[in-house]
UniProtKB/TrEMBL annotation:
Keywords: Membrane, Transmembrane, Transmembrane helix. Residues 347-399, 469-521 form the PAC domain. InterPro entries: Biofilm_reg_signaling, EAL_dom, EAL_sf, GGDEF_dom, Nucleotide_cyclase, PAC, PAS, PAS-assoc_C. SMART domains: EAL, GGDEF, PAC, PAS. Residues 553-689 form the GGDEF domain. Residues 258-303, 401-441 form the PAS domain. This is EAL domain-containing protein. Residues 698-952 form the EAL domain. The lineage of its organism: Bacteria, Pseudomonadati, Pseudomonadota, Gammaproteobacteria, Oceanospirillales. The chain crosses the membrane at residues 182-203. CDD domains: EAL, GGDEF, PAS.
Amino acid sequence: MRISLKFLLALLLFGFALLATLVSFIISKQQVTDRVTKTITKQLLNDLNLIQSEFERYIIYGQAEGISQSVAAKSSEIDTLLLVVTSPNGKVRASTSPVDIGKYWKQLNYEFNSKQYQRVLEKNTSSVWSSTENQWIDGMVPICQSNFQISLRNQQCGVAIYRKDLTYKTNEVLQGIITQSVYIGIGSIIGAIFILIITHYLITERVIKIKNILIRWIGGERDVQIQLNINDELSDIASLINELVQRFSEEEEALQRSEQLKQAIINSANYSIIATSPEGIITSFNKSAEYLLGFKAEELVNKKNPEAFHDKHEVSRKAEELKHRFGIDVQPGFDVFVAIPSMGEVYEDEWTYVHKNGDKIPVHLSITALFNEQGDIEGYLSIAYDISAKKKNERDLYLAEKVFNNTNEAIMITDENLNIVNINQAYCSITGFSKNYAIGKKANIAYSGKHDKLFYEEMWQKIAHENHWSGEIWNRRKDGEIFPTWLTINTVRGKDNRICNYIGLFKDITQQKLAAEELEKLAYYDQLTQLPNRVLFNERLDRMIIQANRENKRFALMYMDLNRFKYVNDTYGHEIGDELLIQVAQRLTKSVRESDTVARLGGDEFTIILSEQKELINLNDITGIANKLINVINQPFMINNLNLYVGTSIGISIYPNDGTDTSSLCKNADTAMYKAKESAAANYKFFAEYMNKENHSRLELESALRSAMKNNEFSLHYQPIINITNQKILGFEALLRWQHPHLGNISPEHFIPIAEDLGLINELGDWVFCHALEQLREWKTNISQEFYIAINLSAKQLQSNTLVTSLVNTIEEYQINPQNIHIEITETSVISDPEMAVKKLKKLRDIGFKISIDDFGTGQSSLNYLKKFPINTIKIDKTFVKSAESDQVDMAIVKAVLSIAESMDLAVVAEGVETKSQEKLLLGEGCKIGQGYLYSKPLPASQVKQLFNRKLRLVE
Ligand SMILES: Nc1nc2c(ncn2[C@@H]2O[C@H](COP(=O)(O)O[C@H]3[C@@H](O)[C@H](n4cnc5c(=O)[nH]c(N)nc54)O[C@@H]3COP(=O)(O)O)[C@@H](O)[C@H]2O)c(=O)[nH]1
C-alpha cells in the first residue's frame, strides 16, 4: 500500500497532537485524583476530629440529640455521602440515612471495614481509608461517653463513621482538566496544521518537484534541472541530483554514442552479424545480413534460428558431421550451431544460407558464445561472409586446371624471363617435347626459323604495350617438322604491374590452313577454270585502283565474252562447253603476264586486269594484247576430236580515264564489250563517252516505249515478197514502225530488244499480230489475189506460254486461215531452248501456220535446225545477198542454202534484193522468191493496194 508523504506527515502530526492531548489528560487526571483524595482525606481527618470532639461533648453533656442534628446537618453537605454514629454497643445512634438508626452497624449495607472499626475502638484513634475504586473515603473516629480522666479502658465508645464523596470533587477537577486537554488538543492540531503547511512548502512540495523532474528525466527529457528557491539541504540534494543526472546523461549519451558507433560498425561491417539469445531467438540482424539474406531485420528479429534462413537438410547433415567429428550428441537444429561455442570455443565452418528469394549462398560462418560475468551464456554471435566468389574461384581454378590438362590446345607458361615454367599435355603431344625437357628451357624451344627478326620484334612490342598478341606463327616439332600454329600470348602482371608470367596458347592449324586454302579457293577461284572469280577479281581491281592512284599510273581493264559459246554448249553439251571454257582460260592466262589478272565472272564472261608496269599505259600495247587475245581465241579448239570455233568480243576501259572505281570501270568495259559485239568490224572496242550517251538514249527510249502503245505511236508497214519468175506478189512481211513525236522514226532493230528487256514484247507482238490479221482480212475483201502475211516473232515471244493460244484466238477472231500466216523466227531465238522451240513450232505448224527461218546464216546456223525444226521457208540474210556478187564465200553460202533447201523441199526467200543483177544471180542459182527494195520498200497499208495495180520494182 502506498501512503503519500503528505498524508503520512499529516497523520503523524495529528496523531501526535491527539496522543499528547490524551497523555496529558491521563497524567493530569491521576494527579488530580491523588490531590483530591489527599485533600479530602485531610479534610476528613479534620472533620473526624471535630465530629469526635463535638459528639463526645454532646454525649458528656447529655445532649445526644445534638449528635443527630449535627449528623443531619452534615447530610446536606454536598460531598457527604454518609455519616453514621454508633453507640458503644454497635447500634446506630445517628445516621444521615434515618433508616439506619437502631440497626447494628454490621447490618448496614455500606461496606464498612469491620477491622478498621475494631482497630479504631481499640486504639481510640481515627482512621481513614479510601474505597477500592476511589469513589469515596471512609473515616472512623471513636466517640466515647466518659470524660478525659476516665481511663481509656473504662471508657465506652461508639464510632462515628464518615464517608466523603471523592467522585464529586474529582469530577469537578477533571472537568477543568478536560477543558485544558481540549485546549491542548486544539492547540496541537493547529500546531500540526501549521507544521504541515510549513513542511509542505519547505519539504513536500519541493520533494514532489524533485520527484516530478526525476519522472520527466526518466521519461527521456534530458535537459530538465531541479531548481529549488531555498538554499537548504533539499536544494543541496537537488543540486546533487542535478549533478548526478548530468553525469548520468553524459554517461548515457556516451553509452548511446558508443552503442550507435557499435551499431554503425556492425551495420557497416561487410560481414553478416546475427546475434541470438541462448535459445536461438534472433535478437540482432545487421545490414549486411539483410543484404546477404534479403530479409529485413524486423522480419527475422524474434524469430528462431536456424529455421529462418537455413536449409534443414544441411542442418541435419552438419549435425551428423559434428557427431562423427567430435563424438557429441547434437540435435539437428540450433544445437548444431551452438554445440561447440557453448563449450567456449569458436565454431567455424562453411554453410549455405538460403536467401529470401530461394537462392543458395555459400558462406563462411563463425559462431561465438557470449558469456556474462558469472560465466553464463547470454547469447551467441554469428558472423558470416559470402564465399560465392571464393567458391567460384576454387571452381574456376579447378576448371582451369582441368582445362590446362585436358585442352587440345598447347599451353606454355613462362616466367618473366621467358623460362618455361609449365607446359600442358597438349603441348607435349603437339610438339613432341616432354615436360621434363621443356621446363626450365627458354620459350623458343619450338623456334621454326621461318619468321624474320622484325616479325618477332613487332610481336614482343605488341605484347609489351597491349599485353596480348595473337597471330599465325610457324613452330618446329621435336622431330624437326615445322607446322603452322595460331598462337595467343597473354601477359600476367603482378600487383606492381610488372610482368610475372607469359602464357602462350596455340593450336596446330595445319588442317585448318589446308581447309582455309581450300575454302579460299572455293571463295575466290572459279572451280571450273581455276581462274580468280568475281570476288577475287573485284578485290584485285580495288587493290589495283588504290595502287594506281598512289603511284599515279594507268591500267586497262578488259571485259570479254565468247561468240558462239552458247551454240557450242547447246549443240555439243555442257561437258564440251566446260572443256572449251577451260581451254579458253588457259589460252588467256598464257597470253598475258603473270602480274595480270585473268578472271572468269561466270558463263563465257572473262576479264583481264592489265597491270601495266610503265608509268603511262601505252594504248598500242593494249591494242596489241587485245588483238593477240582475239587471235588466240579465234584459233580452233580441239575437244573430243571436234574442231570448235568461237570468237571473242573485248571491251576495254582505262583507269582513270574511263572510271576511278571498280563499278564504273567494269560498267564501261562491259558497255564497250557490247559495242564490240555489235560491231562487225573489230572484235574489241575501247570505251568511249558516246557509249554512255547511247546508254542514256536507251533509257530515254525505254521510258518512251512504255507509253508508245497507249499513245498510238505504232503502225505496221508491209513489204512484198515476190515471185521473181513472174514478179507476182506472194505475200507481205509485216514490219513494225514506231513514230515518236520527238525522236521521230525509231527502228525496230533498236526498240524490239528494249521491248524484250522491259517485258513489253508479248503485248507488242499481240498488237502486231492483231493489226496484221485485221489488215489481211480487209485486203482479202478488196483484193482478189491470194497472198500471205509474214509476221516476225522475237525470241522472247517464242518463250511465252500463251503464244499458241493467243495466235489461235486471233486467227479465229479475224477468221484467217493459218495457212496464210508465215511466222518468221530467227535462228538465235531458238538457241536458248531448242526443245521448247521445236514443240511450239510443231504445234503452230500443226494448226496450219507456216514457219520461216529469218536471217538464215547469220546466227549459229546448223543443219540440225533444218532437220529438227518444222520449217517451211528459209530466208537468206540480206548480208549474203548483198555480197554474193563480190564475195565467193557468201556466194557459196547462198548456193549451199539453196541446195539444202531444195533437198529438204523448203522454200527459199532471198532477203534484201536491191538490184537487178542480184535478182538475176539469185534466179540463176534457182532462187525464185525475193524480197527487197528492188521490188518495194516496206509501205504503209494505204499504199499497198497500189502495188497490185501497177508494176512492181519501185526501186531501181
Ligand atoms: N519481232 C519483230 N521484229 C520485227 C518486227 N518488225 C520488224 N522487225 C525486225 O526488225 C528488224 C529491222 O526491221 P526493219 O527496220 O523493218 O527492216 C526490214 C526491212 O526494212 C529491211 N529490208 C528489206 N529489204 C531491204 C533491202 O533491199 N535492203 C535493206 N538494206 N533493207 C531491206 O530488212 C528488214 C526485214 O528483215 P527481215 O525481218 O530479216 O526480213 C528486222 O530484223 C525485222 O525482222 C516485228 O513486228 N516484230
